[in-house]
């Protein structure tokens, strides 16, 4: 089993019968979904809230019952991947472009568990370009404002066209040299007109499931404030 497979499957152990489960997006949480699909087939009863069209499609194939955010009173647990995590369990997410829905679901969840192989662990966030979702209207101007914050920016493209999120927006990938104050940067970016949200998830993760070099599970828990 590869590292993503191991950590992805481990997270499924936290899902109990009757729970409403936020279903993240990406190649690590894919393995959580596969495991949940098998558990549902064996009789586990859950409702999933998908964070992307891609995840909704996979969950449907696996026959995991789905609901929308607005149909549920609360989310018991959300499980998702990350592009980077630091020792405070702050994250960069959005490599797959799903950050807005992911943040909405993570915020609404009583427990937010991140599944991440050890390559995602960093001392300081920022080696991975920070994804910022912007509305298409005025995107060039919005990108200029972001650049003024001393970050290098790049409009994400697929096949020569701007990449479009499930919300119909664009992603600007921003390289900041190192993000010493993630909370501050998160709110500065979100104050720029045209920015929908950014991939900094600060103080949101309750647990990161990763593994050590010997492939032993490591469960990192956030200290209660
Ligand atoms: O938009 C995508 C998400 O934030 C993913 O959870 C993140 O990019 C990690 O993905 P992966 O597990 O494929 O590295």
From TrEMBL:
<comment type="subunit">
    <text>Homodimer.</text>
</comment>
<dbReference type="GO" id="GO:0005829">
    <property type="term" value="C:cytosol"/>
</dbReference>
<dbReference type="InterPro" id="IPR004788">
    <property type="entry name" value="Ribose5P_isomerase_type_A"/>
</dbReference>
<dbReference type="GO" id="GO:0006014">
    <property type="term" value="P:D-ribose metabolic process"/>
</dbReference>
<dbReference type="GO" id="GO:0004751">
    <property type="term" value="F:ribose-5-phosphate isomerase activity"/>
</dbReference>
<feature type="binding site">
    <location>
        <begin position="93"/>
        <end position="96"/>
    </location>
    <ligand>
        <name>substrate</name>
    </ligand>
</feature>
<protein>
    <recommendedName>
        <fullName>Ribose-5-phosphate isomerase A</fullName>
        <ecNumber>5.3.1.6</ecNumber>
    </recommendedName>
</protein>
<feature type="binding site">
    <location>
        <begin position="25"/>
        <end position="28"/>
    </location>
    <ligand>
        <name>substrate</name>
    </ligand>
</feature>
<feature type="active site" description="Proton acceptor">
    <location>
        <position position="102"/>
    </location>
</feature>
<keyword id="KW-0413">Isomerase</keyword>
<feature type="binding site">
    <location>
        <position position="120"/>
    </location>
    <ligand>
        <name>substrate</name>
    </ligand>
</feature>
<comment type="similarity">
    <text>Belongs to the ribose 5-phosphate isomerase family.</text>
</comment>
<dbReference type="InterPro" id="IPR037171">
    <property type="entry name" value="NagB/RpiA_transferase-like"/>
</dbReference>
<dbReference type="Pfam" id="PF06026">
    <property type="entry name" value="Rib_5-P_isom_A"/>
</dbReference>
<comment type="function">
    <text>Catalyzes the reversible conversion of ribose-5-phosphate to ribulose 5-phosphate.</text>
</comment>
<dbReference type="GO" id="GO:0009052">
    <property type="term" value="P:pentose-phosphate shunt, non-oxidative branch"/>
</dbReference>
<dbReference type="InterPro" id="IPR020672">
    <property type="entry name" value="Ribose5P_isomerase_typA_subgr"/>
</dbReference>
<comment type="pathway">
    <text>Carbohydrate degradation; pentose phosphate pathway; D-ribose 5-phosphate from D-ribulose 5-phosphate (non-oxidative stage): step 1/1.</text>
</comment>
<feature type="binding site">
    <location>
        <begin position="80"/>
        <end position="83"/>
    </location>
    <ligand>
        <name>substrate</name>
    </ligand>
</feature>
């Amino acid at each position: 089993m590869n590292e993503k497979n191991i950590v992805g499957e481990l997270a499924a152990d936290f899902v109990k019968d009757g729970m409403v489960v936020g279903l993240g997006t990406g190649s690590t949480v894919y393995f959580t979904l596969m495991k949940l699909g098998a558990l549902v087939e064996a009789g586990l009863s859950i409702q999933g809230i998908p964070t992307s069209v891609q995840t909704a499609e996979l969950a449907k194939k696996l026959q995991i019952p789905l609901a929308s955010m607005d149909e549920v009173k609360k989310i018991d647990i959300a499980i998702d991947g990350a592009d980077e995590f630091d020792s405070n369990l702050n994250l960069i997410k959005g490599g797959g472009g799903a950050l807005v829905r992911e943040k909405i679901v993570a915020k609404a969840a009583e427990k937010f568990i991140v599944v991440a192989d050890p390559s995602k662990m960093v001392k300081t966030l920022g080696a991975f370009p920070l994804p910022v979702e912007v509305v298409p209207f005025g995107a060039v101007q919005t990108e200029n404002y972001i650049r003024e914050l001393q970050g290098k920016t790049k409009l994400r493209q697929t096949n020569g066209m701007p990449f479009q999120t499930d919300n119909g927006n664009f992603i600007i990938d921003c390289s900041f040299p190192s993000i010493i104050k993630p909370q501050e940067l998160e709110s500065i970016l979100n104050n720029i007109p045209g920015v929908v949200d950014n991939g900094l998830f600060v103080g949101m993760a309750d647990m990161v499931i990763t593994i050590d070099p010997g492939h032993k599970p490591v469960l990192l828990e956030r200290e209660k404030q």
